[in-house]
Amino acid sequence: MQITSFINIILGLLLAPLLLGIINKTKASFAGRTGQPLLQAYYDIIKQLQKGAVYSKTTSWIFRAGPVVGLSAVLVALAIVPVGGIAAPLAFSGDLLLLAYLLGVMRFFTVLAALDTGSSFEGMGASREVLFSAIAEPAFLIGLAAIARETGIMSLSHMLPAAHFFSPEVVLVVASLLVVFLCENARIPFDDPNTHLELTMIHEVMVLDHSGPDFAFILYSSALKLWVLGLVIVGLIFPSPAGSFWPAPVSTAICGLILLAIIVGIIESLMARLRLLRIPQLLVAAGSLSAFAFILILR
Amino acid sequence: MSLPAFKTLRNCQTIAIDDVPLVDTTVFRNSIITAVEGGSRICALFGVPRDRLDPQVFSKQLSRAVIRVFAVLAHDREGTLFIISTDIRGSYAALTPDCPQAHWFERELFEQWGVVPEGHPWLKPIRFHKTYNKTEDQTNARESMIGITDFFRLEGSEIHDVAVGPVHAGIIEPGHFRFQCHGEYVYHLEISLGYQHRGIEPALIGGPTKRTLHYMETLAGDTTIGHAMAFSHLMETIMGVSVTPRAKTIRGIALELERLANHIGDLGALAGDVGFLPTASYCGRIRGDVLNLTALLCGNRFGRSLVLPGGVAFDLDNTLVQQLKDRLRAAFSEVSAAVNLLWDTPSVMARFENAGRISKETAKSLGLVGPAARACDIVRDARYDFPAGIFRFSQIPVSTWDTGDVFARAYVRWLEIQRSVTFIQNQLEMWPEGKTETEIKNLAANSLAVSLVEGWRGGICHVALTDSRGLFSHYKIIDPSFHNWMGLAMALRNQQISDFPLCNKSFNLSYCGHDL
Q1: How many angstroms separate the CA of residue B164 from the nearest CA in chain A?
Q2: Contact residues of A toward B, CB < 8 A
Q3: Total structural domains within chain B
Q4: What are the extents of the domains in chain A?
Q5: Is the predicted pLDDT of residue B174 greater than 80, yes or no?
Q6: How far is B124 from chain A (nearest CA, A)?
Q7: Rounded (10°) angle between helices B500-507 and B480-491
Q8: Which of B131, B157, B449, B497 could form an SS bridge with B14, CB 3.0 to 4.6 Å?
Q9: Are B126 and B164 part of one and the same domain?
Q10: Is the model's pLDDT at B138 over the cut of 70?
Q11: Are residues B205 and B345 in the same domain?
Q12: Pair B395, B507 in one domain
């Protein structure tokens, strides 16, 4: 374990909300607006942390546990994803499964907290979230399995740098992971993070009742989730040799993340949301891409 | 076509109240049903206490209970209005089972005057106010709490209700929506309004006063010009005054600017609801630019104090006309680019097409008006069918589309934007000379007149009755939203609940215009 890998975690903790700012700035420039400040996500988180939380009398401890468990899960995930080929501090063989299920735990508790409020909106959002993630998860896992099979390594820290981007399997997996990335992070075309229409929301509607520090945790965890999943994609696209000097691969990875954020912003500017009925179809398509990549490797 | 029992009149024509045929309730009912089957639609159906119509007959106790019900029917293709009336005491056989578009009117009649339409399938208040008939001690005289009522229920262990509002997440007006859902699938939507009820109609009795015009301008703030025009036409008709061509032109331009601003705003909002950023942002700004053109006319972005009985309060000089032309051309070229982006983007079209579809039959039987009706291939446009003011000299083609879905409602708006821009440009080219105001007189006594104006949301209908002193003994306002709310409920049947905001925006109905 190296000291540099801890620096990577700190970088993640500090820079994750910046990605949201970059996405919003990109969208604003497409719409011909100035847009919110680049650091708005930080301001929001700080503002929410200073507020008190309001709890409904009908909620139980699960409602309060949701944001805390979510943040803890994504923090552990941050510790198993490598930055630019530098091994993560908690790397071990098989950690790619842990990553998928850490995100699963996070979602599970968000959903439970949403159901705990008893609100019909949050119930609706929870049911949508569970349905879509049930289809997105296989796409994610099979995609990673394909890479693991190709490289023969089961640890993200060593597997991602070893993948060759120009092989057809990896291209397919990257395409599939990009779809999962947009779905998991509640971005267009799956969900509209800016909407105020509670009947159309997926992720946003589940956290309507959270306030103050709880909501700050939720905002921060979703920024970290964007960072973690982004690193997996960027790690596949820019595989850097493990031996190179620290700043080079790390700055490559961070530039990759910024590029990814800009691409997300462009996608959100160029297309409308899908009709809710069509979302499973797109996710199944992503799953098929992953499965096809896996078959290509087995042949 | 002429209907035997009815009195025929045109838009903006004054008749004596005594000339309105007074028939037996059965004849009244049958005539309306026959006429609606023959292609007419109900424009207005309202009650007036009989003692208010002839105060000479002073048997107060008795006549209080008698409500004279007037029905104004419109035959769009003929361009003719038909009027009939009957006296009703207590109850009568409801029209609704045979004529669904009477549904909302009869509920209103029941709520305002305690007249019970026997056999009405869903009789409950629409605005939750006390009955206007104070001495009436019938069942609905009890004070009703707003929104507290029986709602349509679907039974079954997997069915659930989703209740939205009256407080919403966005900055919009209050209204309560109840969805009967199975998962994401909507079986039925029931809409409960009345949160914006201010009692405008009772406040207008005994008018016109200084306040009357301001009530009209704020009936539905986004239709200021439309309602002020309907009111002014009505006043001028009953006064027997005709306004100058220059005033008519300015009114026409203002009405079309109002349509432009709202249609552009709606297209932007539709794009926003599907998360399509570019059109949403650009249309939002261009709407502001068009509102500023109205401000150029009169200093107010919504056109307050522009239209008044006898003409318009502000004139345009040549520099303003030139400025209006230039800025309109610029706004139009920008809006063309922004809106055409919608039709060229497959992901947007995938959301718009087949969402919230209404069949032509449903639209006809509900008596929908405005872009919502024209999107169902119904040729219904008061500017064309019942022209008044400038539209008697300069016609605007009716824009229709035939699919009845969100796309059709959006596309009809786009067609109307183009035609309104052409209309305004033509008007600015041939600019009549003259004054903008005409001397106004007193209202004729014991008269009745109907005024129809095609506001941006659809046909606005105002009906005024004057007493022996030439004051309003009754003033009836029917905002297009009054016809169309039921259309929204029908559009949501068999849809996904997540498409509700989109369908709602494609109608964009007024809460305060409905609640009055």
Answers
A1: 9
A2: 27, 30-33, 120-121, 124, 127-128, 188-189, 192, 194-200, 268-278
A3: 3
A4: 3-298
A5: yes
A6: 26
A7: 160
A8: B449
A9: no
A10: no
A11: yes
A12: yes
